[in-house]
TrEMBL record:
Top-level taxon of the source organism: Bacteria
Pathway noted in the entry: Nucleotide-sugar biosynthesis; UDP-alpha-D-glucuronate biosynthesis; UDP-alpha-D-glucuronate from UDP-alpha-D-glucose: step 1/1
Protein name, as recorded: UDP-glucose 6-dehydrogenase
Lineage: Bacteria, Bacillati, Actinomycetota, Actinomycetes, Micrococcales
The EC number(s) this enzyme carries: 1.1.1.22
Keywords from the named record: NAD, Oxidoreductase
Species of origin: Brachybacterium rhamnosum
InterPro entries the record matches: 6-PGluconate_DH-like_C_sf, NAD(P)-bd_dom_sf, UDP-Glc/GDP-Man, UDP-Glc/GDP-Man_DH_C, UDP-Glc/GDP-Man_DH_C_sf, UDP-Glc/GDP-Man_DH_dimer, UDP-Glc/GDP-Man_DH_N, UDPglc_DH_bac
Length: 445
């Protein structure tokens, strides 16, 4: 028997919320996405994606057309909802300490009267946002007196670039609840939401709030640690002649270590890993574990240090000064298959080169508009050819497929000096060298 379709709301249709909303509609539910940003709501309502994400455009359009997926700016439309998902941003606070929870707080303020009007009908609020451990317990205290209303924390593990796949085929579902011995409303509603995934034998774990919150930030902090670890090793490779790809390959064959997230290069960026390690560090400090989390400060410092490292390398290749040098940068997004430039290592390096006087031209298959909007005076090109033309140094900083597959012989003629920094260990070094390029890879001889 097919599961009962529910009526769901997704409050906050940024990256995470929009993908979650469309994916839940795909599972057969009726979904209303809410956001305060009227332009975003208008675009999504017409089935137009506000961001670049493989597979999302089709998913969105299909579900908007079917009528299962709608969007609104108006909380009054969220009556008769079985499960409200909270997918609001929890940005780093301006003082750098901890997360700004004000968007979640105001959503809850707006929801409370609607929840009270349900007259005891079971309703679940399911938090998806990444929050400091302890947050759900505090929010729970606010709604516990409302009859029939429950709260769960249901963290999301999707990766940009694989968001649709990760939402519809996650490694695991985690339900954080107030009381594991008394959570039948939370479990039965979430199990109905995810019935199709549970049917695929995707593991589903019920934990307390605190564990569920910590799973999320621990996972991201562990991933960040793997990347900074291999980047630290890559610096030793550079001075000794070892090859970091070989080291990563062989240690990754030990399945206690695992092969993934050991790609050395210019380090991690994006809206999650950098923010989450800083968030965990600050929360750990508040909870009295300052010393045990000092390593996260190092993970962060190693990561940002990679950006400086590449700028120094560029300067060395350009005879000691960047001033007036024509530098071409391939890639601006924080990783391939996204147009997201939040805390992008590629863009950060490009800006550093520029601030030291280089004439930087940059291109990205998806992020050009986002770069132009943020840095109107920055020189953004739409084609690889125009970007490379007359360059004295090329830097490959986001490993898009189209850059990995460039033909070194044919682009050789575009540049003034055939030298390239492979910031992502993405190129076939021998092929590029055979075509007459001087290639500097990070951690590779
Ligand atoms: C990350 C996590 O991987 C997701 O599981 C999580 O749900 C998400 O954050 C989130 O909290 O929302 P995402 O930020 O999309 O996902 O990107 P990742 O694929 O984790 O990549 C992060 C950065 O690490 C990128 O800049 C990437 O280039 C870099 N990276 C990744 C490396 O430098 N080396 C690697 O081996 C892997």
């Amino acid at each position: 028997s097919s599961p009962r379709p529910l009526t769901l709301s997704v409050i906050g249709v940024g990256y995470l919320g929009a993908v979650h909303a469309a994916a839940m509609a795909e599972l057969g539910h009726r979904v209303i996405g809410l956001d305060v940003d009227a332009d975003r709501v208008a675009a999504l309502s017409e089935g137009r994606s506000p961001f670049h994400e493989p597979g999302f455009d089709e998913l969105l359009l299909r579900n908007v057309r079917s009528g299962r997926l709608t969007f609104t700016t108006d909380y009054a439309k969220l009556t008769d909802v079985d499960v409200h998902f909270l997918a609001l941003g929890t940005p780093q606070r301006a003082d750098g300490l901890g997360a700004d929870l004000s968007y979640i707080e105001s959503a809850l303020d707006a929801l409370v009267p609607l929840l009270e009007a349900r007259d005891g009908k079971p309703t679940l609020i399911a938090g998806k946002s990444t929050v400091p451990v302890g947050t759900a317990r505090g929010l729970h205290a606010r709604i516990t007196a409302i009859d029939g209303v429950a709260l769960a924390w249901n963290p999301e593990f999707l990766r940009e670039g694989f968001a649709v796949e990760d939402t519809l085929r996650p490694d695991r579902l985690v339900y954080g609840v107030a009381d594991q011995g008394n959570a039948s409303t939370e479990i039965s509603l979430l199990d109905t939401v995810y019935a199709e995934l549970i049917g695929l034998e995707i593991p589903r774990k019920v934990y307390n709030f605190e564990s569920a919150e910590l799973v999320k930030v621990s996972a991201n902090s562990f991933l960040a640690t793997k990347i900074s670890f291999i980047n630290a090793i890559s610096e030793l490779c550079d001075v000794t002649g070892a090859d970091v790809n070989d080291v990563a390959e062989a240690i990754g064959m030990d399945d206690r270590i695992g092969a993934k997230f050991l790609r050395a290069g210019i380090g991690f960026g994006g809206g999650c890993l950098p923010k989450d390690i800083r968030g965990l560090l600050s929360r750990a400090g508040e909870l009295g574990s300052v010393d045990s989390f000092a390593f996260l400060r190092d993970i962060d410092a190693i990561n940002t240090g990679r950006r400086e490292y590449v700028v120094r390398l560029a300067k060395r290749l350009l005879d000691g000064t960047l001033d007036g040098k024509r530098v071409a940068v391939l890639g601006a997004a924080f990783k391939p298959d996204t147009d997201d430039v939040r805390d992008s290592p590629a863009l950060d390096i490009a800006l550093k080169l520029y601030s030291e006087g280089a004439k930087v031209s940059i291109t990205d298959p998806a992020a050009n508009e986002n770069v132009r909007r943020r840095y109107p005076s920055f020189h953004v090109e739409d084609s690889v050819e125009e970007t490379l033309r007359d360059a004295e140094l090329v830097l490959l900083l986001t490993e898009w497929k189209e850059y990995r597959e460039l033909d070194p012989a044919s682009v050789r003629d575009l540049v003034a000096t055939a030298q390239i920094i492979d910031g992502r260990n993405a190129l076939d070094l021998s092929a590029w060298r055979a075509a007459g390029w001087q290639v500097e890879a990070l951690g590779r001889p």
